[in-house]
Design the sequence.
C-alpha cells in the first residue's frame, strides 16, 4: 500500500468514527429513559373521568415518530393483563372504549392515559410501557375506584310526647368499598358537647346493589322524657371516599301531653269557624311557647 492509499484509509476511518459518535450522541444514553407515575396509588370516583399519570422524565421534547406507548391493566380478580391502548407513530388504537393518550402531550413526554366514566371493575394495576428507540421504560400504578355515600335521616317528626317510642333511621347508599362506619352522638344542655352512645342503636349489614355499590341503614330507638327536650341527635358517617365525615342532625322537641290534649280540644271546638291557616298559626305559637 502506498502512502496515498494509507492516508485515504486513515481519513475514511476517522470519518466513520465521527459519524458513529455523532449518531450515538443523538440517541438517549443507556439507562436514561425513565417514566414517572403518580406515586403507587391513584384514586378516582365512580363514573368520573380519570387521567392515569405517566410521563417520560428525561426529555423536554420527544419525537413521537420514534416513540411507542402501550397501556395495560391487571384486574384485582385476575393475573391476566389486558391491553387498553397503544400508540406507534401514526398508528393508535383504543381497546377500551374512550381510552386515549393525546399526541400533543406526547411531544412533551406526557403519556398519561385518559379514561371516561370509570367503573368499579376497572380498579387494578395499570402499566405504562414507553419505547423511544432503542430504549424501553415501564411504570406501574394501582388505580382505586371509590364511591361516596349519599346519606339521609328519616323521621316522622321531631316533636314527641313523653314516653312515646320513636324510631329514626340513618341511611347511606351507593358507597364503595364496603367498609363504612356509622355512629350516633347526642348533645344536651347538661353536657354541651357531642357524646357517642350505642344504647338503642341497631345497624344492619351492608347490602350490595346491582352496580356493585352498597347500602346500609342504622336505626335509633328513642323513648324520651321531658328532660330530653331540645336534645340534638347526630348520625355521623365515615367512609374512605370522604375527605370529612358526614354529619346529620335533628333536634328533639318534647310536648307536654296534658297541654297538648287541651289544645286539641280547643282546636276541635273552634275548628268549624276559623280558617285552617289561623288554626295552624295558633298551633305554631303554642309550640313556640312550649
Sequence:
Amino acid at each position: 500500500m502506498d502512502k496515498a492509499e494509507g492516508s485515504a484509509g486513515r481519513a475514511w476511518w476517522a470519518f466513520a468514527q465521527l459519524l458513529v459518535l455523532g449518531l450515538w450522541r443523538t440517541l438517549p444514553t443507556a439507562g436514561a429513559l425513565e417514566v414517572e407515575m403518580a406515586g403507587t396509588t391513584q384514586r378516582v370516583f365512580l363514573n368520573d373521568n380519570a387521567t392515569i399519570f405517566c410521563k417520560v422524565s428525561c426529555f423536554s421534547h420527544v419525537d413521537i415518530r420514534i416513540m411507542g406507548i402501550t397501556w395495560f391493566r391487571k384486574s384485582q380478580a385476575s393475573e391476566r393483563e389486558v391491553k387498553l391502548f397503544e400508540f406507534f407513530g401514526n398508528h393508535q388504537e383504543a381497546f377500551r372504549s374512550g381510552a386515549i393518550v393525546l399526541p400533543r402531550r406526547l411531544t412533551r413526554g406526557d403519556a398519561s392515559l385518559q379514561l371516561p366514566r370509570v367503573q368499579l371493575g376497572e380498579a387494578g394495576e395499570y402499566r405504562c410501557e414507553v419505547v423511544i428507540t432503542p430504549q424501553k421504560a415501564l411504570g406501574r400504578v394501582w388505580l382505586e375506584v371509590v364511591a361516596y355515600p349519599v346519606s339521609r335521616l328519616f323521621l316522622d317528626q321531631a316533636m314527641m310526647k313523653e314516653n312515646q317510642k320513636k324510631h329514626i333511621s340513618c341511611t347511606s347508599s351507593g358507597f364503595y368499598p364496603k367498609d363504612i362506619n356509622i355512629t350516633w352522638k347526642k348533645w344536651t344542655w347538661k353536657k354541651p358537647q357531642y357524646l357517642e352512645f350505642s344504647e338503642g342503636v341497631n345497624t344492619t349489614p351492608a347490602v350490595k346493589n346491582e352496580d356493585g355499590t352498597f347500602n346500609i341503614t342504622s336505626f335509633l330507638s328513642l323513648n324520651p322524657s321531658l328532660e330530653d327536650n331540645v336534645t340534638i341527635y347526630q348520625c355521623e358517617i365515615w367512609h374512605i371516599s370522604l375527605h370529612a365525615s358526614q354529619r346529620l342532625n335533628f333536634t328533639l322537641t318534647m310536648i307536654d301531653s296534658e297541654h297538648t290534649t287541651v289544645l286539641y280540644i280547643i282546636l276541635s271546638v273552634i275548628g268549624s269557624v276559623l280558617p285552617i291557616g289561623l288554626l295552624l298559626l295558633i298551633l305554631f305559637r303554642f309550640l313556640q311557647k312550649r
User: Anything to note?
Assistant: Residues 8-30, 260-268 have pLDDT under 50 and may be disordered. Residues 150-255 form a domain with the Immunoglobulin-like fold (CATH 2.60.40.10).
